[in-house]
Recover the amino acids of this structure.
């Protein structure tokens, strides 16, 4: 009966949105190509973002990644801390020393964070489903709500395509019987745009590793590590008038994975299945000085965990209904106001809850941006207030901007207050849950410089940012005897600096070189109570040093690329008394060649990952593969006008 009422609520929401005209703008409107009459600008929320450190992964790089997961894309091209529980296992991301639940993850403006555990598994998102990936460092809770304490990752699947037909086929074959196939079909006219993407992946994941947990450090082969997944994402865009459009997206996915034993265990008979459904619909348009978006989305995740040894069989079902209305008022070319109203209904069903849980959250956001057309300076301020089950939470805010001090050089500054409310698991998990938890509150300050110089044959782009983030009531699960329970740590202090540099140089029409480098230093410690045993100790799995370098050389249709990644040592216990998990370096290499004939393009790519066969662990006692290979073929055809 509850499920029936939930779906009736969803249907009613869509009906109301279709019948009521509420002016607004979306978190990431599609940049329309074939519907040029609709002058919808890029995200108004993005224009209010005052973070001093932002990164956009080029769409060309996303397209080339083929059958990679989002976890692999982020690991290879950013300085983010990516913790991976074994190859193909759970993958979480940390930004600026915050926890995995402190990163807001949005898909076309829809939050992907689980209402039950607050996380997102980045290894389950194939890049063939994405067109844009943008990362913003620092707390932006006033813009993106609960969870944006360390940073925000925005994922976008564009619904618009040029008029005509486009087809793309991806085929991968790699080590450990890793096979991937993906197909993308786009079709557009003057009135409609349609896209469907589908994928399938299967892997035995039976690599050899050195087991440091056993006497003599024997070489073993990973057992019970097989996984397979498949899914599809479809989008449909309809141009209502020259100034309005309606878009609907549907994303379904199934993942089946055996969970291998830890290096400290002999055997595992565990299996995990995840079924995901994500549906969103939005109506966008503009009139005179106003631009709007109204969006409704439904998300469902079913997790089925089985352990035949311990006779465990558990099903967890999380659902979210999101309704968002957003209005942008362009008072003047230099001034804009943005107002957003957001409603979230979260549900959790689990054998580990005493009963099914439903939680309602309503928030109101308002922001202002000043940005002269000459680009000499900009300023933005925003605030948000949220009502959770009838209780008002502390208001959050963000304020900052940039100033061009000399040609090519900008100084940036930002101050913000962010928050994260406890997840349903934090509050209601049987025996372990803690209903007395307080929301986390973070105060973040940024100061940075940005240098950009573009010439006819070269581009230099450099960004350096220092950050400071104090988080009160930090929620962490800690053991009390044999029972783990979440508690509010009094305060956590994260500080450090991050930098990135990019150089592009064209020697001639046929030769060019591209260099990207990023470095991040992060110290995240428990503060507040100087008498606490863990005072001033680095939090677990937060490396102080993270360094990444990407170099590529291109000649005509050939490209050779090399990636160097260094992740520093990480502690695995709260008191930093046990031996730290060793730091490690990874070296990756690929050779790409492109062949074009009329409207057809064929790309052939050979990748060698972990070139030097480094033995390492991302998370303690979860082995990772040594040197491995991947062969990719991407064929595409289009007759776009």
């Amino acid at each position: 009966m509850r499920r029936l009422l939930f779906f009736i609520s969803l249907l009613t929401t869509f009906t109301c949105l279709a019948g009521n005209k509420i002016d607004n703008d979306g978190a990431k409107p599609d940049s329309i190509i074939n519907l040029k009459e609709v002058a919808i600008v890029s995200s108004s929320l993005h224009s209010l973002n005052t973070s001093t450190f932002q990164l956009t992964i080029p769409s060309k790089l996303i397209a080339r990644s083929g059958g990679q997961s989002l976890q692999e894309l982020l690991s290879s091209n950013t300085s983010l801390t990516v913790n991976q529980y074994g190859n193909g296992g759970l993958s979480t991301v940390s930004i600026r020393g915050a926890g995995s639940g402190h990163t807001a993850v949005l898909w076309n403006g829809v939050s992907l964070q689980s209402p039950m555990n607050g996380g997102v598994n980045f290894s389950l998102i194939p890049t063939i489903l994405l067109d844009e990936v943008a990362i913003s460092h620092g707390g932006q809770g006033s813009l993106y709500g609960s969870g944006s304490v360390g940073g925000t990752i925005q994922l976008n699947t564009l619904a618009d395509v040029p008029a005509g037909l486009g087809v793309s086929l991806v085929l991968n074959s790699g080590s450990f019987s890793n096979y991937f196939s993906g197909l993308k079909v786009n079709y557009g006219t003057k009135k409609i745009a349609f896209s469907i993407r589908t994928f399938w992946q299967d892997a035995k994941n039976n690599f050899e590793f050195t087991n440091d947990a056993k006497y003599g450090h024997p070489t073993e082969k990973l057992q019970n590590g097989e996984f397979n997944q498949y899914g599809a994402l479809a989008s449909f865009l309809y141009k209502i008038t020259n100034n309005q459009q309606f878009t609907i997206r549907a994303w379904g996915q199934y993942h089946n994975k055996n969970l291998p034993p830890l290096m400290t265990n002999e055997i595992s008979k565990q299996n995990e299945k995840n079924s995901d459904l994500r549906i969103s619909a939005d109506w966008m348009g503009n009139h005179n000085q106003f631009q709007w978006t109204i969006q409704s989305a439904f998300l469902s995740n079913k997790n089925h965990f089985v352990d035949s040894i311990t006779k465990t069989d558990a099903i967890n079902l999380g659902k979210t209904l999101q309704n968002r209305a957003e209005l942008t008022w362009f008072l003047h070319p230099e001034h804009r106001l943005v107002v957003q109203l957001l409603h979230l209904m979260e549900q959790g069903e689990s054998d580990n809850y005493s009963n099914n849980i439903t939680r309602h959250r309503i928030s109101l956001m308002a922001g202002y941006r000043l940005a002269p057309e000459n680009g000499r300076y900009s300023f933005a301020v925003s605030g948000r207030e949220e009502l959770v089950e009838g209780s008002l939470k502390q208001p959050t805010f963000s304020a900052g901007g940039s100033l061009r001090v000399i040609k090519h050089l900008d100084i940036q500054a930002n101050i913000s207050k962010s928050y994260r409310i406890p997840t349903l698991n934090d509050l209601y998990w049987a025996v372990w849950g803690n209903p007395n938890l307080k929301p986390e509150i973070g105060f973040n300050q940024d100061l940075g410089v940005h240098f950009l110089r573009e010439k006819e044959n070269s581009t230099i782009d450099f960004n350096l940012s220092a950050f400071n983030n104090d988080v009160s009531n930090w929620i962490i699960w800690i053991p009390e005897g044999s029972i783990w329970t979440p508690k509010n740590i009094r305060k956590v202090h994260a500080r450090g600096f991050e930098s990135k540099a990019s150089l592009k140089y064209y020697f001639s029409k046929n030769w060019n070189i591209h260099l990207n480098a990023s470095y991040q230093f992060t110290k995240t410690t428990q503060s507040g109570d100087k008498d606490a045993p863990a005072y001033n100790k680095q939090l677990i799995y937060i490396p102080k040093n993270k360094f990444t370098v990407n170099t590529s050389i291109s000649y005509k249709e050939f490209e050779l690329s090399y990636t160097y990644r260094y992740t520093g040592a990480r502690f695995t216990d709260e008191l930093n008394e046990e031996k730290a998990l060793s730091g490690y370096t990874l070296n990756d290499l690929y050779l790409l060649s492109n062949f074009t004939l009329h409207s057809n393009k064929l790309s052939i790519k050979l990748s060698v990952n972990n070139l030097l066969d480094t033995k390492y662990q991302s998370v303690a006692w979860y082995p990772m593969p040594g040197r491995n290979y991947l062969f990719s073929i991407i064929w595409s055809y289009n007759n776009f006008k």
Q: What stands out?
A: The CA atoms of residues 40 and 117 lie 35 Å apart. The mean pLDDT is 89. The first helix runs from residue 2 to 19. The two ends are 50 Å apart (CA to CA).
